[in-house]
Amino acid sequence: MSEKKIRKLIRKLIKENFTEEEKRYVGVVDFYVHAENDKMAKIKAKEISDMIKDNYINSHSKLSELYEQPFATFGNRKIDL
Hints:
mainly alpha; two-stranded antiparallel sheet; 2 helices
């Protein structure tokens, strides 16, 4: 499929799925996950992100950051995704 046809298809899909009255917003969500280790924390956090994506059309939910945050502390440790 040519780039021109792809662009035309994208414009058509946008026009069909969004009205001019609708505005697009970005929401940022923080949540706590309790797990035995980093690997299990990643799995649980990804599952929650996927539940949002599966239940809300065009949400494009993704897990962008993950931190270890011990209870009653101010510091945290970033987990590599």
